[in-house]
Design a protein that fits this description.
Rossmann fold, five-stranded parallel sheet, alpha/beta
């Protein structure tokens, strides 16, 4: 088992999620009906984060944006370089993305490669009116010119470290850890 160092507990995570939700509400409240903006969680950890964001948005604004789930496995630029085939998850986008304001949601933003793949994937489904990015953790170390529009927690960690978010079954059972890449 790799050695993990806990960086944030569930209270800090809940506060960060609420902060992101408030920022989303501030941008879209009164300007965009709930049915005209949606959250798209990137498999795997972006999906539970998007669910929690929607709950917080609804609690603070009364709006309940739709949720979609996006698998980017086949859009990754390292697909042929891995030793094993990726596990493919179901992409489920229950609405027309054309002219929709969408918020891509992922747990950790690092190099930007996952988000680049997500942008390629989402545009295969249509042409959104606008795309925003919400992440729980922005840890820096970019390789692509991509930034988060909404970030709950900014961390500075060594480039050879991996930041991991673990969402439990309830909101009271989540943590953020850091470990070495080679031990993850």
């Amino acid at each position: 088992m790799p050695e993990k160092v806990k960086l944030c507990n569930n209270f800090e995570i809940k506060a960060a999620i609420n902060e992101i939700a408030h920022s989303i509400v501030a941008e879209f409240h009164g300007k965009t009906p709930a049915k005209e903006f949606a959250l798209i969680g990137i498999h795997r950890q972006g999906v539970p984060l998007a669910q929690r964001l929607i709950s917080s948005i609804e609690q603070h604004s009364g709006k309940c944006p739709e949720l979609a789930q996006l698998d980017i496995s086949m859009y990754r630029d390292d697909i042929g370089m891995r030793n094993s085939l990726p596990i493919i998850h179901e992409t489920n986008i229950p609405f027309d993305v054309n002219d929709m304001a969408v918020i891509l949601v992922d747990d950790v933003l690092s190099s930007g490669r996952t988000i680049r793949a997500a942008l390629d994937a989402i545009t295969d489904y249509g042409r959104p009116k606008l795309i925003r990015l919400a992440v729980l953790v922005d840890r820096g170390n970019r390789e692509f010119p991509i930034r988060a529009d909404y970030a709950g927690i900014d961390l500075t960690v060594a480039q050879d470290s991996k930041v991991m978010v673990e969402f439990g079954q309830s909101e009271n059972d989540s943590s953020i850890y850091v470990t070495d890449w080679d031990k993850a």
